[in-house]
């Protein structure tokens, strides 16, 4: 069984889009768990009602306090271990990451323990998985992963995954960096505004990572951006919205760590070396 766990906070309008894209593009049978991490009671009630209408699992953890900060993500991810099983393929899929192409989690993770996006801090001294998309194979000790981070060690949420990775076979996901360069309009087969700052993962996922308006853009800008997202997802179900020729040029396991562009490279000093497990 593929179990997909998604922590939802800030916005309630992404859940239906999340499910719609998964039901259209996911090639595996899956069970979806919506983790309610809202500190706004009205939004919490709204997301619970949506879960009932969509016939998906609704979960509200009570073993930690929700403060409304980014660090709420860590206890939510760790609490997923209480409702998961190491006998399943467990997937963490952030609420603002949408499938836009056919994809099988089971086939993708086949010969590996875990897959995700490479992240590093402190000049490669700390190498870990960015926890917005994580695929853990069955019998790979999902229950032992710590998605938190030691405060003050320069890492963000997910920093402690570096301890789990030490003896695991990792499949690092190819992805672009933030699509914020003027030339990045070439990546899409539809109109795109580089200020939106999206990201493409494995040419199959659209990461709409500024979706909670943490950068305090105007309401009109956010409405325009949301309209673009809705249109992009709709069009993805009709034809590919990705120009793969352009995407593959900047589609590497290291884009998140380096945030390099136009072919520039920082010397690879990684001790974990994301390229070791590449076939």
What average pLDDT do the residues reach? 89
- Secondary-structure-based class equals alpha/beta
Main sheet overview? 7 strands, mixed
**Oligomerization status of the protein chains:** single chain
- At the fourth level of CATH, the homologous superfamily of the largest domain is Spore Coat Polysaccharide Biosynthesis Protein SpsA, Chain A
CATH C-level class of the largest domain = Alpha Beta
Number of domains: 2
Query: Which percent range fits the helix content?
Result: 25-40%
**What's the alpha carbon Rg, rounded to whole Å?**
18 Å
Strand order of the largest sheet: 3-2-1-4-7-6-8
| CATH architecture type of the largest domain | Alpha-Beta Complex
Strand content: 15-25%
Number of helices: 8
What is the third-level CATH name, the topology of the largest domain? Spore Coat Polysaccharide Biosynthesis Protein SpsA, Chain A
What overall form do the CA principal axes indicate? globular
User: Which spans of ≥5 residues are poorly predicted at pLDDT below 50?
Assistant: 258-265, 274-279
Spell the H/E element sequence.
Answer: EHEHEHEEHEEHEEEHHH
* N-to-C CA distance: 26 Å
**Overall strand count:** 10
């Amino acid at each position: 069984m593929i179990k997909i766990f998604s922590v939802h906070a800030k916005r309630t309008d992404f859940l239906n889009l999340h499910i719609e894209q998964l039901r259209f593009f996911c090639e595996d049978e899956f069970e979806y768990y919506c983790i309610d991490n809202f500190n706004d009671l009205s939004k919490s009630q709204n997301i619970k009602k949506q879960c009932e209408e969509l016939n998906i699992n609704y979960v509200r953890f009570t073993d930690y306090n929700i403060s409304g900060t980014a660090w709420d993500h860590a206890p939510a991810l760790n609490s997923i271990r209480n409702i998961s099983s190491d006998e399943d393929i467990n997937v963490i899929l952030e609420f603002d990451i949408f499938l836009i192409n056919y994809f099988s989690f089971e086939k993708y993770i086949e010969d590996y323990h875990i897959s995700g996006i490479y992240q590093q801090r402190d000049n490669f001294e700390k190498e870990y998985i960015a926890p917005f998309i994580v695929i853990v194979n069955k019998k790979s000790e999902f229950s032992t992963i710590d998605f938190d981070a030691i405060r003050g060690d320069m890492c963000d949420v997910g920093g402690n995954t570096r301890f789990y990775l030490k003896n695991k076979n990792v499949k690092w996901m190819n992805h672009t960096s933030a699509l914020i360069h003027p030339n990045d309009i070439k990546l899409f087969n539809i109109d795109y505004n580089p200020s939106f700052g999206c990201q493409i993962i494995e040419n199959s996922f659209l990461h709409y990572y500024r979706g909670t308006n943490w950068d305090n853009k105007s309401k009109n800008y956010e409405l325009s951006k949301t309209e673009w997202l809705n249109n992009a997802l709709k069009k993805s179900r009709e034809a590919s919205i990705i120009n793969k020729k352009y995407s593959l040029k900047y589609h590497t396991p290291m884009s998140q760590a380096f945030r390099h562009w136009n072919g520039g490279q920082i010397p690879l000093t990684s001790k974990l070396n994301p390229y070791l497990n590449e076939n």
